[in-house]
């Protein structure tokens, strides 16, 4: 990934802004960008547990709830969004349009988009003050759906600077997002052609080694001789390192949890879509992530994502 001032043609975004120009997709990422400084500013006071659990049985922090509410309000207000789903909400929210009234996301005519978010991915990093982010998938089908129904995906990364990566059929763009001092945001394009570097440098694998299946441990042993470990505990940050330096990120199947930890609709599918558009690959160990058929909104899936040759070697190792 290029540095913020390395592309001489880069500059402020025109109005709207998704590379492929779909107005609903542009509006979704405008809304996500607009809320990013507000979410960031709210984090210092929201590092504590909220006292509730989400649909995956995980403890929810006050920051998770704040981001979920802010993004939910902004995205459900958009024309062309028929359905809103969040990792922090048990059921889908009917956002208007032609979505059926039973809250399951059954579209009446198939026209509106469904938007899935992980409001604060890696939020356990709030306590230790490390990177985290927001993941967004825009589907043109009722959810749950496969990743083949994504029309765009992106994430905001709350690192030392706030960046947003957006992918659609036209390519992958990275922007820096800053408050404009007037209640809005200033967005500067870093690159509109983000590609995985050919020579991979880094790897990051989640979970505990004793919980990994032997075949994955054997693969990890190979990879650690070739690449540098970069694991921060937030998928968004760890995948951003892979997009920047080349390499492989995994949250693998575990011996006692063959479905791994990450959620297909909110995490794995959007990340797989972005990395594939950037020239990489993503698998659950057997299939392309984008081909995995979900049973429910909160299904989990093992995720192995990065440079194609590293992902192919992983698939062979797990075979
Ligand atoms: P979250 O969305 O509830 O924060 O959980 C997902 C996160 C990922 O960002 C990260 O890859 C993983 O959980 C880290 O898990 P672990 O702490 O087990 O390494
Ligand atoms: Mg997450």
TrEMBL record:
SUPFAM superfamilies xrefs: Carbohydrate phosphatase
Residue spans crossing the bilayer: none
Co-factor requirement: Mg(2+)
Domain of life: Archaea
Keywords: Carbohydrate metabolism, Cytoplasm, Hydrolase, Magnesium, Metal-binding
Disordered: region residues: 1-22
Pathway(s) it belongs to: Carbohydrate biosynthesis
InterPro entries with a match to the protein in the record: FBPase_C_dom, FBPase_class-1, FBPase_N, FBPtase
Subunit details: Homotetramer.
Name of the protein this chain belongs to: Fructose-1,6-bisphosphatase class 1
Organism: Halorubrum hochstenium ATCC 700873
Organism placement in taxonomy: Archaea, Methanobacteriati, Methanobacteriota, Stenosarchaea group, Halobacteria
């Amino acid at each position: 990934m290029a540095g913020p001032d390395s592309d001489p043609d880069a500059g402020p975004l025109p109005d709207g802004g998704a590379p492929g120009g779909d107005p609903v997709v542009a509006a979704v990422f405008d809304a996500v960008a607009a809320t990013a400084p507000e979410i960031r500013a709210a984090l210092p006071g929201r590092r504590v547990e909220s006292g509730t659990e989400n649909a995956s049985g995980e403890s929810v922090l006050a920051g998770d709830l704040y981001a979920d509410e802010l993004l939910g309000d902004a995205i459900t207000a958009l024309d062309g969004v028929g359905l809103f789903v969040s990792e922090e909400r048990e059921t889908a929210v009917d956002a208007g349009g032609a979505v059926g009234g039973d809250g399951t996301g059954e579209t009446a005519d198939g026209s509106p988009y469904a938007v899935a978010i992980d409001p604060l991915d890696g939020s356990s990093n709030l306590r230790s003050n490390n990177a985290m982010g927001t993941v967004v998938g825009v589907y043109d089908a009722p959810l749950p759906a496969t990743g083949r129904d994504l029309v765009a995906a992106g994430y905001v990364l709350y690192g030392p600077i706030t960046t947003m990566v957006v992918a659609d059929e036209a390519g992958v763009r990275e922007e820096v997002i800053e408050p404009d001092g007037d209640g809005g945001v200033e967005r500067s394009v870093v690159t509109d052609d983000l590609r995985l570097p050919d020579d991979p440098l880094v790897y990051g694998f989640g979970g505990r080694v004793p919980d990994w299946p032997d075949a994955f441990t054997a693969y990890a042993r190979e990879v650690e001789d070739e690449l540098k470990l970069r694991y921060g505990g937030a998928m968004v940050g760890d995948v951003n390192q892979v997009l920047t330096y080349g390499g492989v990120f995994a949250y693998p199947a575990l011996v006692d949890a063959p479905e791994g930890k990450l959620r297909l609709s909110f995490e794995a599918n959007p990340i797989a879509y972005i990395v594939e558009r950037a020239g990489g690959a993503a698998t659950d160990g057997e299939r392309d992530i984008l081909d995995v058929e979900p049973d429910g909104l909160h299904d989990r899936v093992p995720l192995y994502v990065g440079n194609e040759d590293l992902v192919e070697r992983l698939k062979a190792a797990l075979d």
